[in-house]
């Protein structure tokens, strides 16, 4: 029996992690993270619940990576702390992974194995082929997974482009070969199923970038995803044609460019690239600066430029800032804030909503149809998308001939089972999200988030007092202060009156009462919440600190 178990990435964008299991062998495809949603206050990022992996450690043969985006590799350091198994990926993907593992102190023990597109590996009863796919990062692959029951095609993140100038076009012939031989099931990227037609070509984006940068008098600053090496090469080509210098600023983009150069994915003339320290020696109209921060990240290079805190770059009136990336949902407010600050400093800002300067790395509907027609699967399973994307992709598959009973619309934790009779959805396993806050892993849950939300919305009131252990009388306090609740100079009477409420609570609890201090704490929380809501319609967090001496 073959099992496919999504641990993340179905019903959401991010957290991509999928288990393939047959007999005593299990391997994992991708291990990604997701950035926190608005209500996850203080959380750095989110990773999948790996309890199933923990429970089946002895079966895990390997991790196989499709490409180098954070939503596919970001949680790998946490997985390797559970099972230190071989990790297979293409050279660029593993180059990015290697840097990440070094940051976590895991690189020396990691077992990384480079596999180029077209390469094959054997894992127990499974045999895998890496198939080249085009995406918004170089060296992306899909997988043909040969099992005793048939071939499973996992597309990875893909789009279909027939232009192969960079050698990164999706290998449609290889997918078609498996379709001709017979594909048991297709697991296909659903991200852009809502968009009709085909994605625009990278060449169109290059032409658009050339057009919007033509004739600019000041510096040109372009923010994008560090992994988008194809876009960076287009910018380099523009700089070369116009005899400009190029500067890369931002740790992630510097690492990505260095790695891409080592692997031959990018060509930068040695006399063109400048160090950021040397930028002042050249006229503004000779400079193109490529940086990070297109998503409004608060500590990014672009954010520091917008805030006026960048060590080397102060935005001037003739500067042009280009955000060459899609606005990821949830980041719109932060991005808008940076755009506004850049405008206030006099820069001209160009972004996706006003110019065609970005193309998605995920195929549109016609490309998704083509993938189904190429692979000719008996069963279809949509992956990588929110639930509406998965639903619409399921309908699309049915429109082009997949019978409804062979469309497997699964969610995270849903076990998809194949046997000689076919495929079906089975019971769910426990899965979910684990929140990472600093060095804490999973120690922030719903109750903590609720407290943080209450603190952010209503503030904190602290009550401090000391009680005589023998007599029960107050020997210190009650002293009260607040944070994020009210402006005490304006409403000091509110806390003064609240002191009277505290005294009444203490008097109501007899000195002979067992565990008196605990009972006073509990009653203070209830009574003070009622008092503040009645007087000012707010519900601050109440923190009573009572010491018995």
Description of the molecule:
With 549 residues, the protein is an alpha/beta fold. It folds into three domains: 2-197 and 360-440, Metallo-beta-lactamase, Chain A, CATH 3.60.15; 202-350, Rossmann fold (3-Layer(aba) Sandwich), CATH 3.40.50.10710; 459-548, Ubiquitin-like (UB roll), CATH 3.10.20. 32% of the residues lie in helices and 25% in strands. It contains 15 helices and 26 strands. It has an eight-stranded mixed β-sheet with strand order 7-6-5-3-2-1-20-21. A six-stranded mixed β-sheet has the order 8-9-10-11-12-19. α4 packs across α8, α9 (301-307) crosses α10 (332-344) and α14 (488-508) packs across α15. The radius of gyration is 28 Å and the shape is globular. 44% of the residues are buried. The mean pLDDT is 91.
Which characteristics define this entry?
8-stranded mixed β-sheet, single chain, 6-stranded mixed β-sheet, 549 residues, Ubiquitin-like (UB roll), 15 helices, 3 domains, alpha/beta
Q: Helical residue percent?
A: 25-40%
Average pLDDT taken over every residue: 91
Unreliable sequence segments:
none
Write out the CATH superfamily name of the largest domain.
Ribonuclease Z/Hydroxyacylglutathione hydrolase-like
Q: Termini distance? A: 67 Å
Named at the architecture level, the CATH assignment of the largest domain is 4-Layer Sandwich
Which CATH C-level class of the largest domain is it?
Alpha Beta
Q: How many structural domains?
A: 3
Based on CA inertia axes, which overall geometry fits?
globular
Structural class: alpha/beta
**Number of separate strands:** 26
Q: What is the percentage of strand-forming residues?
A: 25-35%
- Order the strands across the largest sheet as they lie in space: 7-6-5-3-2-1-20-21
Q: What is the CATH topology of the largest domain?
A: Metallo-beta-lactamase, Chain A
């Amino acid at each position: 029996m073959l099992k496919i178990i999504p641990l993340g990435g179905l019903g959401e964008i991010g957290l991509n992690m999928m288990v393939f299991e047959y007999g005593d062998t299990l391997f994992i495809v991708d291990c990604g993270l997701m950035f926190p949603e608005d209500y996850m206050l203080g959380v750095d990022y989110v990773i999948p619940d790996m309890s199933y992996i923990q429970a089946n450690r002895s079966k895990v043969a390997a991790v196989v990576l499709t490409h180098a985006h954070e939503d596919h590799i970001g949680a790998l350091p946490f997985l390797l702390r559970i099972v230190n198994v071989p990790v297979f990926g293409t050279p660029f993907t593993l180059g990015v992974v290697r840097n990440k593992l070094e940051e976590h102190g895991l690189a020396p023990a990691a077992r990384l194995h480079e596999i180029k597109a077209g390469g094959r590996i054997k894992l127990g009863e499974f045999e895998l082929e890496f198939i080249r796919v085009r995406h918004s990062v170089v060296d992306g692959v899909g997988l043909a997974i040969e099992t005793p029951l048939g071939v499973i095609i996992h597309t990875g993140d893909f789009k279909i482009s027939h232009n192969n100038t960079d050698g990164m076009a999706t290998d449609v012939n290889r997918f078609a070969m498996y379709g001709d031989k017979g594909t048991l099931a297709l697991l296909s990227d659903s991200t852009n199923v809502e968009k009709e037609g085909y994605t625009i070509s990278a060449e169109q984006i290059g032409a658009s970038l050339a057009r919007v940068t033509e004739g600019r008098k000041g510096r040109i600053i372009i923010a994008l995803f560090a992994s988008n090496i194809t876009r960076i090469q287009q910018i380099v080509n523009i700089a070369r044609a116009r005899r400009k210098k190029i500067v890369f600023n931002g740790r992630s983009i510097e690492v990505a460019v260095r790695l891409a150069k080592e692997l031959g994915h990018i060509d930068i003339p040695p006399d063109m690239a400048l160090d950021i320290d040397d930028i002042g020696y050249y006229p503004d109209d000779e400079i193109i600066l490529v940086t990070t921060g297109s998503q409004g990240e608060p500590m990014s290079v672009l954010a520091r430029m917008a805030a006026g805190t960048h060590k080397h770059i102060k935005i001037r009136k003739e500067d042009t800032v280009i955000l060459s990336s899609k606005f990821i949902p949830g980041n719109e407010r932060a991005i808008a804030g940076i755009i506004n600050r850049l405008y206030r400093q006099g820069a001209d800002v160009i972004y996706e909503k006003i110019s065609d300067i970005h193309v998605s790395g995920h195929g549109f509907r016609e490309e998704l149809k083509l993938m189904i027609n190429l692979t000719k699967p008996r069963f279809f399973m949509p992956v990588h998308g929110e639930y509406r994307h998965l639903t619409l992709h399921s309908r699309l598959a049915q429109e082009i001939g997949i019978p409804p009973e062979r469309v497997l619309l699964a969610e995270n934790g849903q076990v998809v089972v194949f046997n000689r009779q076919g495929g079906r959805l089975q019971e769910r396993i426990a899965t979910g999200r684990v929140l990472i806050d600093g060095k804490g892993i999973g120690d922030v849950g719903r109750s903590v988030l609720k407290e943080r939300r209450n603190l952010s919305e209503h503030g904190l009131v602290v009550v401090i007092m000391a009680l005589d252990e023998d007599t029960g009388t107050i020997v210190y306090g009650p002293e009260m202060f607040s944070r994020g609740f009210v402006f005490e100079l304006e409403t000091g009477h509110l806390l003064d009156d609240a002191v009277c409420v505290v005294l009444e609570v203490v008097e109501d609890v007899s000195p002979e009462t067992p565990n008196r201090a605990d009972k006073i704490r509990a009653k203070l929380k209830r009574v003070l919440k009622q008092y503040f809501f009645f007087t000012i319609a707010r519900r601050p967090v109440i923190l009573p600190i009572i010491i018995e001496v």
